[in-house]
Amino acid sequence: MTTPPSRLSWIRVPTEAEAPEGVKKLWAKSEANMGFTPNVFRAQALNGEQFLAWWNYFNLLVNKEGQLSNAERELLAVVVSGLNRCTYCEVSHGAALRFFSGEPLKADTAAINWRHADLSPRERVLCAYAEKLTRRPDEMTEADLGPLREVGLSDEAILEVVQVIAMFNMTNRVSSALGFVPNPEYHTQSR
Q: How far, in Å, CA of 150 to CA of 16, rounded?
């Protein structure tokens, strides 16, 4: 396993010896698949059971076959994280968006200001919806679903959009509240 930076979070990060067995298995799997263990995995391992429950739901929403493409889910992640100014998620999911979209310029621009990115009409609608749900959830109405339907999203896809946006709003708050530091590897991926 690669050695993590000396400080990954504002709270104590457990050592590998302290981590629960299920967490160690996930660390080893990510090391094998990615070449490193995401710092978010290490920083949240202090409460191993809660971390694994979060990971299982996150993985189901973001990494499995669904109604949205991987690039669309990562675009939502980047837009929400940018709006919330979550450094960890902007950097890590910016890397994932570059990978899944194959368009580094588009991904980097969307991370800064999605309105300036070269997006499809469907992607623009997804971003606008993500922005409103993130910034003004109390103003959501049934009419907000109209543009999503107009670009071809089914009710199942709309539910997935909402769940992905909600997951990133929650994850952004955890990451920002505890000062999670992005892995250096993310900065150079897919460039």
A: 49
Superfamily of domain 21-63: AhpD-like (1.20.5.810)
* Cα atoms in the 13 Å half-sphere on the side-chain side of 154: 5
190: left (phi over 0), alpha (psi -120 to 50) or beta: left
CATH 1.20.1290.10 fits 70-177, yes or no: yes
Q: Do 21-63 and 70-177 share a fold?
A: no
pLDDT tens figures, 67-103: 999 999 999 999 999 999 999 999 999 999 999 999 9
Query: How is the chain split into domains, by residue range?
Result: 21-63, 70-177
Determine the distance from the C-alpha atom of residue 80 to the mean position of all C-alpha atoms in its chain, rounded to a whole number.
Answer: 8
Q: Is 0.85 surpassed by the pTM of this model?
A: yes
Burial label, 95 (beta-carbon count in 10 A; 0-12, 13-18, 19+): buried
Contact 53, 74 (CB under 8 A): no
Is residue 4's pLDDT more than 80?
no
Q: For residue 37, which of 50, 51, 49 has the smallest C-alpha distance?
A: 51
d(CA 166, CA 139): 15
Exposure pattern of 31-40 as b/e (b: 16+ CB <10 Å)?
eeeeebbbbb
